Automatic annotation (TrEMBL):
Gene Ontology molecular function terms on file: O-phospho-L-serine:2-oxoglutarate aminotransferase activity
Pathways per UniProt: Amino-acid biosynthesis; L-serine biosynthesis; L-serine from 3-phospho-D-glycerate: step 2/3
Keyword entries, A-Z: Amino-acid biosynthesis, Aminotransferase, Cytoplasm, Pyridoxal phosphate, Serine biosynthesis, Transferase
Catalytic activity field: O-phospho-L-serine + 2-oxoglutarate = 3-phosphooxypyruvate + L-glutamate
Record EC number: 2.6.1.52
UniProt protein name: phosphoserine transaminase
Cofactor dependence: pyridoxal 5'-phosphate
Alphabetical list of CDD domains matching this protein: AAT_I (cd01494)
Enzyme class, broadest EC rank: transferase
Entry similarity comment: Belongs to the class-V pyridoxal-phosphate-dependent aminotransferase family. SerC subfamily.
Length: 392
């Protein structure tokens, strides 16, 4: 049977998991009011940075007594700032099931070299047994949504209400598309370039009153780089949480984030954003149900991400291949789609199992995902036909 080239292509073929697609209708004109050539410490700069914090609180529904700060080095900088500033006061449980979570484990065990560290891990596609994590007595570091595995925590019910330690949550591919249980979280980090499609370089850190108390009552035994310091003279550096950034931010990127937040409000705030991401994920779920040669990498439906959706090829002709050949097959599928201009940046993360990774965050349009699905089928059939030719 002939493999027919699909008749239509996505209008916006951008499915990268970061930087992610810009919001629908975005143009450079959206940045025309940026405070370029002005100091970020001038009133106009401070006002825009403070507005970014205030709109973040409004859209994400962050409690009024939680502090929100704009920090250097994207989500990575925010997570490192939290770990280097807060960990070490008590034992810590590290939870990881994909590459970024594993990176935080490495930093705590080999860089901070904490003495009392327990690690709970799971292979790609699965979650560790979260009930084994001691959220009552120990600090906990985990990702809400595994960007490179497409596996997320279903909820925060596993976190003790009466915890004594802190929960530090990397939520960079969850924020603005999944509901975060704020009372269960003490530190939440994310970046601008994920669900809202903002520009990279800047991170956000959200601190609960309990996290602030730890900052004021605990001093790590190691020196802290300037970009990690949230206290001065034994007091909280309140300016960080009012738009006075530690280092110089890009006011162009700030303007873009403000534009994304304004768009988020127009589409219904958090409810609208979650609805859009859920709808996008359903497009892929339908495609998977209709094709027996592809499946989700996430084993359990309730843990499947609605943003970084990861897929694996299950056709016996592919799974019988050696690991490097399976990776080459996945890259060929991606290459066929990209050369046709039907979808970009669909490849699996370098440390993840071979397959596809499709961003379904709120800035992606369902119509574009619907147009992409026939191209995945076409590319798969083309690549599989090539396997037969090689065997011959």
């Amino acid at each position: 049977m002939a493999n027919t080239i699909p008749a239509a292509r996505p209008r916006v073929p951008h499915f990268s998991s970061g930087p992610c697609a810009k919001r629908p209708g975005w143009t450079l004109k959206a940045l025309s009011d940026a405070a370029l050539g002005r100091s970020h410490r001038a009133k106009i700069g401070k006002d825009k940075l403070k507005l970014a914090i205030d709109l973040t609180r409004e859209v994400l529904q962050v409690p009024a007594d939680y502090r929100i700060g704009i920090v250097p080095a994207s989500d990575t900088g925010a997570v490192e700032m939290a770990m280097w500033s807060l960990l070490g006061a008590r034992g810590v449980d590290m939870v990881a099931w994909e590459s970024f979570g594993e990176g935080w484990v490495t930093d705590v065990a080999k860089q901070l070299k904490l003495a009392d560290v327990r690690t709970f891990t799971a292979p790609y596609g699965e979650l560790p047994n979260l009930r084994q994590v001691d959220t009552k007595n120990r600090d906990v570091v985990f990702t809400w949504n595994g960007t490179t595995s497409g596996v997320r925590v279903a909820d925060a019910s596993w976190i003790a209400d009466d915890r004594e330690g802190l929960t530090i949550c990397d939520a960079t591919s969850a924020a603005f598309a999944q509901r975060l249980d704020w009372p269960k979280l003490d530190v939440v980090t994310f970046s601008w370039q994920k669900v809202l499609g903002g520009e990279a370089a800047h991170g956000m850190i959200v601190l609960s009153p309990r996290a602030v108390e730890r900052l004021l009552t605990y001093k790590p035994s190691w020196p802290l780089p300037k970009i990690f310091r949230m206290t001065s003279g034994g007091k909280l550096s309140e300016g960080i949480f009012a738009g006075e950034t530690i280092n110089t931010p890009s006011m162009l990127a700030v303007e873009d984030y403000l534009d994304a937040l304004a768009w988020a409000k127009k589409v219904g705030g958090l409810d609208g954003l979650v609805k859009r991401a859920d709808g996008n994920a359903r497009v892929i779920a339908k495609f998977v149900r209709e094709n027996d040669w592809i499946d989700f990498l996430a084993v359990k439906p309730k843990t499947r991400s609605n943003t970084s959706v990861c897929l694996k090829f299950t056709d016996p002709a592919v799974t019988a291949l050696p690991a490097d050949a399976q990776a080459a097959f996945a890259k060929q599928v991606v290459s066929i789609i990209e050369k046709a201009g039907a979808g970009y940046d669909l490849g699996h993360y370098r440390d993840a199992p071979p397959g596809l990774r499709i961003w379904c965050g709120a800035t992606v349009q369902s119509r574009d995902l619907k147009a992409l699905m026939p191209w995945i089928a076409y590319a798969f059939n083309e690549a599989k036909a090539g396997l037969g030719k090689k065997a011959a």
